[in-house]
Structures are given as C-alpha cells and as structure tokens.
Amino acid sequence: MKVLLTGAAGFIGSHVAEALYTAGYGVVGLDLRTGADIRDDSALDQRLVDVDAVVHQAAKVGLGVDVTDLPGYASVNVYGTAVLLAAMARHGVGRLVLASSMVVYGEGAYACAEHGWIRPMPRAADDLARGLFEPRCPRCGSGMACVAIDEDAPTDPRNAYATTKLAQEHLAANWARETGGVAVALRYHNVYGPRMPRDTPYSGVAAIFRSALEAGCAPRVFEDGGQRRDFVHVRDVAQANVAALAGRRPGMLTAYNIASGEPHTVGEMAAALAAQRGGPEPVITGEYRLGDVRHIVASLDKASHELGFRAQVGFADGMREFATAPLGRSSSPQPPA
Ligand code: UD1
C-alpha cells in the first residue's frame, strides 16, 4: 500500500514516515522544507499517482504571535487541506488520516459535586490576576474535579490554530460524505520527543522547557504549575497513525484522542526534565496567558477499542530520553518566496 505523507520532514511527520516504512508501507513525502507545498496542485498531482491513502501532518502549528498570523493559519491549514482533498478526489484516493489536536475542545471536562458534568467558559482575567487558576462551577461557584474528555464533547476552539484544526476536520468530513471516503482525525494531546522544534513562538511547553534547560536557564512554569496535560511520546503518535490507516467507516470522519493515558501537571513535567539534566530547578512564576486552558486530559477508550491504540512510552522513560534528545529547528517553516 502506498501512502502520501504531508509534512514528512517535520517533527511528527518524520516519525510517522519511519513508522510507516517499518509497517511495510510505501511512502511518498511532501513538505515545505523540501520545496513542495500542499497548496500546489501540480505538486499533489505528481505525488498522488497510485497512492492508496493520505496521512496529512503538514500544518502551521502552535499559538502564533498575534492576529497577523491569521492569514497564514487559514492559508496553510484550511485552504491547504481543501486543495489536498480536492486533489485526492481527482485521483480517486479514498482514505485519509488527519493530524488534529485536543485544542479543538478548548477547556477540558470537569465535574461539579452538585451540578455534574461541566464545560467551563474561559477563565476571567480578574481571577487569573488574583491567582485563582482553577475554573469554578458557573452555577454554584464551587471547585470542580477535572475529568477525562471524550470525542463526543462539544468543540470550543479558542485560537486561530484550534479553529483551523477544527475546520480541517469539517472539510475532511465533507470530503468523506461526498466521495464515500474514510477519514480519521487523530486529536493529538501534548506531543513531545526527539526532533521537537526548539523554543519559538510556535512551540509547545515541553520544547520551551527543554530549550531553557539546554541554555542553562530555569524552566519558567506559569500559573501555579498545577495545570494538567497529557504528554504523549511522538513514537506513540506515529504508531497511532499507522493504526488509523486501517479505519473502516466509509463516508464518515471518525475522531480519536491520542494521548498517553498518564496525565501530569506542567510543574511535574518541568521538574522531571530539570532533574534529568541536573538543573536548574524550575521557577513557578504565577504568570498566566489569557488563552490558556487550565486542565485537559484525554479519555482513550475509543482509540483503544477501535484502533487498538495503547501508548508504549511512559512519562518517566519518555522525559529521560527527551531531556537530552536532539531538538528540531523550527516548527513553522515559511513558504518559499
Ligand atoms: C499545546 C500546543 C498546541 C497543541 C496542543 C496539543 C502550542 C503553543 N500549543 O497546547 O498547539 O495542539 O498542545 O498537542 O504549541 N506554559 C508554561 N511555561 C511556558 C509556556 C507554557 O508554564 O513557558 C504552560 C502554559 O501556561 C499552559 C501549559 O504550559 O498551561 C501548556 O502550554 P502549551 O504547550 O503552550 O499549550 P497547550 O494548551 O498545552
């Protein structure tokens, strides 16, 4: 079976390429870093001949800097996916695995002891300024427990990247319905591992901490460090892509959380990396970013039952490796002039 892998030279894409080769797939790569753009019909037409499936990892990632980033997100992530799907239809390619993200959910899921399951609104700036970081029940104001989010949760994209990832899912669903194709969206949680792009405005927190430690600086942990995430190793994410190629729901898009199943706080992650590198110790700064969510942890029931997915790399082993693994250059290459 032959697969077109977009974003093949990127952080996650390069690991997906290795996993696909190892699983016996023929792989054709397409990546801006090697001069091929998903928005270019001719680049797609050359590469889609005799292809059976597309694994779409190419994207502009991260939080961006400000609104000047909006056209870039829309162009690469939304328009680029639309061009890709149209090209797949032209070439009769009926199978798609899409790199989506947990950011489509916005804030995680919570349970109030009195009012049950709650999806809170963005936290108030006043609360954050006073160091009140935990979302509170909108009905009674009391504290809530963070619970695992599943794929049926309503989506609530809160930044340009999240909005464009959700748009990719919707476009893929439209394509699947129109063509009878099979589409799988993998909602990655916080991916880390070798070749993760180093500290840029587009980097995730694990790369920021790792870059700081390499430069001899303390990781700066925002809020009180108690925010929970699921840090999932990039090799497990690559295996999830291989498993997703076997998806079997014609005419539909099916979404899956892809995570380790072993959530940790950002403070614990900083401490684990710092310990592995012999310091400096993390600093809890109390700073906050208005766009950040407090906790988000994944239910893996669906991925485990339907894809047979189960992460193999535990937190301690993964962070030990990541503490000294080589980092990549930049997460968002600019299109060639
Ligand atoms: C991250 C990615 C998002 C990706 C998602 C799932 C970025 C910017 N965010 O979202 O694109 O889709 O994972 O893989 O790439 N923090 C610090 N110190 C710092 C930076 C951040 O303590 O120097 C804290 C933040 O306040 C936040 C947490 O770390 O609470 C996670 O931040 P980050 O990795 O940027 O964003 P996510 O929301 O987890």
UniProtKB/TrEMBL annotation:
Pfam families linked to this entry: Epimerase (PF01370)
Domain NAD-dependent epimerase/dehydratase: from-to ranges: 3-109, 150-259
Transmembrane segments: none
Protein name, entry field: NAD-dependent epimerase/dehydratase family protein
